[in-house]
């Protein structure tokens, strides 16, 4: 996810196409009112690690998908530890840089990414505990990626021009990694965890013990046949990955089934709607279109549960096609809750710190998920058997 404002998914300082994370947070935090009218009761809850803060970086995709993997570790009986989000992001930036140059710069650059990037980097490069590789290498206590990304972009654009008689030098990747070392720190070849020495690969194999093949990503578009793979058409899909295309209602079926089986969901979508309030920790779809909301209606958005717009696949696709829905942000769905009217909402873990109504969590209506999801990833063990059979699982 990236910066339209936010972040592929800090509001993600996402990559090209979204706002910077800080801008995104300011925007959705402005959607404030009284939340005393909302009362939520948990229905199912999966275990998750404590909420973190991606700060001024468009790394929501790495925070949310790594948090998803942390819950996967807990689910299988492993330790509840934070994995290094910046290690995953750094490896993804190296891979993305290679694609950027191969595409002669015709690729979105920035902090943004997708949940599959975390799994792909885990499969190829392993992982490590967060305290081993924080990425805080120049005196800051929180991520600040603006300068680094500007330097990286300028470097890559210079490389693409191939000033060496039209040929690339053999050392540009080494130079690129040198910049990452300066800002994020060099990646340790080995490290110690609980008294034992590991490499990133051996830590993934011996401690994390997750199988990358277990994770399946889904989209829902009307522009490709259902039950086939299609490319996720968002700027932050720099890896050009294809995902399973399912009908809109099957998104809900899959998410519900996974949560009720104790699995969490790595979610990506749009959080720029006026009815998404980070401060209040609520997101839903009013019956009135966002562009037509009056001042009084906006003021009353978060005073309690209200009727929602009916979402159809056609409405969902139209919003995606006209940029009303963009790939703004990535979060982790960890459970289901009911409001005082008995309506089910999703419990969602964010990565913007704990300074909101629900200590870093929020409640997102199922209609919001129907309308604003760009993609999501689950463990195949959490997919309903009939759907898993359709995709050859």
Task: Detail the topology: elements first, then pairings.
Blueprint: H1 21-29, E1 41-45, H2 60-75, H3 85-102, H4 115-125, H5 146-160, H6 172-184, E2 191-193, E3 196-198, H7 200-208, E4 215-219, E5 229-231, E6 242-245, H8 248-260, E7 265-269, E8 276-277, E9 282-283, H9 295-299, H10 313-321, E10 329-338, E11 344-349, E12 361-365, H11 366-372, E13 373-379, H12 385-390
Parallel strand pairs: 4-6, 9-12
Antiparallel strand pairs: 1-10, 2-3, 4-13, 5-6, 7-10, 7-13, 8-9, 10-11, 11-12
Give the N-terminus to C-terminus distance in angstroms.
Answer: 27 Å
Report the count of strand segments. Answer: 13
What's the CATH C level? Alpha Beta
- Unreliable residue runs: 8-19
In DSSP terms (H or I, runs of 4 or more residues), the helix count works out at 12
Order of helices and strands: HEHHHHHEEHEEEHEEEHHEEEHEH
- Characterize the overall form: globular
Helix content: 25-40%
Task: Give me the secondary-structure category.
Answer: alpha+beta
Question: By CATH's scheme, which homologous superfamily applies?
Answer: Cysteine proteinases
Give the total of domains.
1
The third-level CATH topology is Cathepsin B, Chain A
Radius of gyration: 20 Å
Q: What CATH architecture would you give? A: Alpha-Beta Complex
Q: What is the arithmetic mean of pLDDT?
A: 93
Major β-sheet, in short?
11 strands, mixed
Quaternary structure: single chain
Strand content: 15-25%
